[in-house]
Amino acid sequence: MSKMALLRFVIASAFIVLAATSSVHAEAENLDDGVTVETVEEDSYQTPQIDSKKAYLAEHFDDEEAFKKKWVKSETKKQGVDDTIAKYDGKWELQTPARRLLKDDFGLVLTTEAKHAAISALLNRPFVFSDKPLIVQYEVTMQEGQNCGGAYLKLLSKGVNTRNDLKQFHDQTPYTIMFGPDKCGNDNKLHFIFKHQNPKNGTIEEKHAKKPTQRLDDIYKDKEPHLYTLIVRPDNTFTILVDNKEVNSGSLLEDFTPPVNPPEEIDDPNDRKPEDWDEREKIVDPTATKPEDWDEDAPAQIVDPSAVKPTGWLDNEPEMIPDPDAVKPSDWEDEMDGEWEAPLVDNPLCSAAPGCGEWKAPLVANPSYKGVWRAPLIPNPNYKGKWTPRRIPNPHYFNDEHPFRMTTITAVGFELWSMSPQLLFDNLIITDDEEVAAEWARQTYTLKRDRITSQAESLVERGLKFAGENPWVYAVVIIGSFIIVGFVAYMCCGPRTQELEVEDVKKTDAVVEDDPHQSDEEREEEKTDESAEKEKQSKADLEGPDDTKESAPLIDTEGAGDGQRKRKPRKE
């Protein structure tokens, strides 16, 4: 196949590939809802609406006037820290997200870093733990990531009933549940802590849920909104969701530390191990004695008595000698550099001999070596086993079959400290109906995720989706790629017969046919130049060399072409 024909074939193939690619693009743009995610426009967002009877609190943070009436910033100080940093002076503001996804969507933003901050609000009505589940759900966007700090909330216990109580909200304010993300360095957690009251003595103790089943590193660094959902049920089970995906679940009775119910028996704290109690399973044999021929001083290795120095060993020749070819450097100064010494090289005499220098017999294991003598161990006739204190009934034992029945909740608050500013909280809901929380998320969080997905989905990603449904696209692209690569390889590495012939004509002095593309005037001009050159050379040969002129050096001059040119000597 000629190059021109091959070129036509490649061009045609390229048009086919381009047509297939255009088809992919067109199909990807027109895929139905089963293949692509529908793009959500900014003006499609509306402030979520939920029947107030179905929620104990539903806060979207879109209404600044309502926010100011409901939420109260703490005016007290954190307990147990230096007064200079104890004040809750972190700043809270309603702002649009730094990455605007939905029009007119606002969130509660902690704008400051390295400051204690606290804000809270009363529930519309108290939540009493009886026969309905508790669902807590809210969004967090760590707009600048998170280095160290929390983004959790606290469900405050009854006793926090007025706005004045909210002004005194601090780290020791009683809470029933703490839930949400927390991170410092490489340690990241998703807290679920509830406070349980001992029914026997009234003391209150924190119970910490087991760790999630998967690592949640991305939520602290991707700077995207994430939805946190906690569901606690009357049957003592719980489920934690992140972005509507389960990351932890279990039982209030079995999956918390320390456990809700203490053990029925405990070790007797007053029991003591008897003085004659022997826990040694084996002892040194008291009747054993060291054998008389046991030499503890014998070395582990001795000189091989059968070793013989090899014949031809050069005892007086060193293995290394000064290099006889080395020369002292001309710039070596003995006063500054010290006395010069030639470098050492291998002694050439040693290469032909078994060895050089002092010969020493090798060491071998000493057959008489036994080491330090130790008496053998034998079973202990007085062994009684490992001692443990006796078990007694636990005086503090109780059996709470319903840990779900926690202290009533009357308020919710954020009491935080963070090294990263711009923490954004949004769309907080507390309800007893899982479907209500799901619908709230569909009106808020789901719209944001759809928007993020549509923005991130490039043409290539859409094409790949279409190709996944239509495998023939891969075949077209692969064939087209092979054709193009083959054409490039052929053009770069294929035969160059015609070009080589032209180059040979340019390099030879032989008589060749006239170029049919040259005009008569061009041919005549070339002949005239050749005649003039020959005449000049003949004249130079007759005159002989000019001894009066110095020979000029050959130099390269700018624009002189491939060869070197003689520079004319300068006249004196």
Automatic annotation (TrEMBL):
This protein's UniProt keywords: Chaperone, Disulfide bond, Endoplasmic reticulum, Membrane, Signal, Transmembrane, Transmembrane helix
Superkingdom, natural source: Eukaryota
Listed GO biological process terms: ERAD pathway; protein folding
GO cellular component, one term: endoplasmic reticulum membrane
SUPFAM superfamilies: Concanavalin A-like lectins/glucanases (SSF49899), P-domain of calnexin/calreticulin (SSF63887)
Family: Belongs to the calreticulin family.
The name this protein goes by in its record: Calnexin
Organism name: Pieris brassicae (White butterfly)
